[in-house]
Amino acid sequence: MADDSSGPKVSGPAANALIYVTLILFLILGIFAGWRSHRNSGLFLKATRSQSKWSLGLNFLAINIGSGIFYSLPEVGTIAGITGVFAYAFGAAAPLFIFAIVGPMFRKHNTRQWSMTAFIMERYGRPMHIVYSVICTLFVGMYMVSELTTIYGVFELLTPLKPLPPMIIICVITTIYTAFRCVHPSKEDIERVGLVKPTKMGGELFVILTLAIGFSDMYHQGFWQRTFASRNDSDLRWATLIGFCLVFVVTTLIGMAGPLAAWAGTWSLESGVPGSSAFFTLVSSLAGWVSGLVLVTTVSLSCCAIDTCQTAMFASLYDLVEQKVNIWVVRATVILLNVPVIFLAMRAPDILQVYLMADLLAAATLMPVLFGLIKRLNFLHWTDAIVGCFGGIITVGIFGQIYLGNRHDGWRLLLIEGGLYTTDERVLGAFCLAPVGSVVFTFAFAYVRRAFTKLLGREQYLYVNTIRTDEDDEDNDSAKDRAIDQSSNDDTAHHQSPESDRDDQAKRRLAAASH
Known about the structure:
With 515 residues, this protein is mostly helical. The chain has helices at residues 12-36, 41-45, 53-64, 69-93, 96-109, 116-123, 126-158, 164-179, 187-193, 200-219, 221-228, 233-255, 257-264, 278-284, 288-320, 327-346, 351-365, 367-371, 382-404, 407-411, 426-455, 470-494, 498-514. The protein is built from 23 helices and no strands. The radius of gyration is 29 Å and the shape is globular.
């Protein structure tokens, strides 16, 4: 997937120095942060109610920005032009507002809540908890594949190094510290290439990418960790607004590298170079120090993204075993899971396709989970939710079979083959119908289950939230204070001073004499 451009590359010694100095700095910073947390697993996982709006806003930017954006964002720009770039930027930024809405709902349900997996365990029970944790692990694994694929391509393109050793070292280091010439395009070139006018694909991407990224963010434990880390709901709302502005601006600027490469002539559809390499064709046409800067930036972003994914994977697995297994066993499991991730990344899949596969999985399975927050839907059982999750996946396959006219291609729509390069509406239909299908299957199965339960004369299932929240504790404390005050008043009334007793007796004798 590398481009064979003859542009300047970073020499071997310089590349090694840049890569490993950057990794050592990240290792030192990570270990220092871990030392400050005093190996507190709770702080390692959640840092509940500890972050301000500005800190969270920057964190929302950080979790949205990984090295994979240097491939996926410019690629969208080469497919759908400027409209596609703005669609991707909006789709990446707008879903943050979902957390400003849903986050307070989780806190209202349980003010001590800090993860989706913990909520699902309490609401739906162990079976659905297992399904969700497995999906989360697969989902985060896909994102790690995309990040490492980017690293593989960048090392192959900009350096003479073999990509595998640095990839392995990046995974090891992030695991360790998480445990503790200018281009001048002309006006004629821009008009010739196009990518400026609004396109049908660009309009569809506003729907596809907003749905895709919105559902996928809800499955990413990193977003939930940041949501529950907000000090209060007001800070969370401001943080999402700050994050929206930052993410929109940054992703737009990076995405414009795709159209800019086409206008400048460093990339074209006829060249045979994939659109995902458009950004690096620009870099290859610039001075050598720019390649070095991009190399450092890519390694840094990959470290940030991979350590977030590893932390999210750790949190999912730790919840999966109900926190009953030694924490180091779970960390060792995360290390072992890096092996297949690196293997898949070396096969250099299309990064945008990997993202879309993960997003489609999230879109097909998330709605039944969110229904657990709605009080009026307290009749939903864990079996309904599981059927709904699989129903969303089945819906995509059925739609693909009907739309494409054959079973083989229809069910391969789940793999999003061709990504966004297809000229029809198969991808748009898949992302629109996946959540609809999960909703239909959830309620259809719930209706059948309840009808069958009624037929057997058994009691219907109804969920009751028995969790004591912080508000309950405050109410109890207030009630205790009132009881103490009342008790004090009663004690005062029943334990008067001797002088008061003599005064009362004198008043009674005087009243009797007057009668």
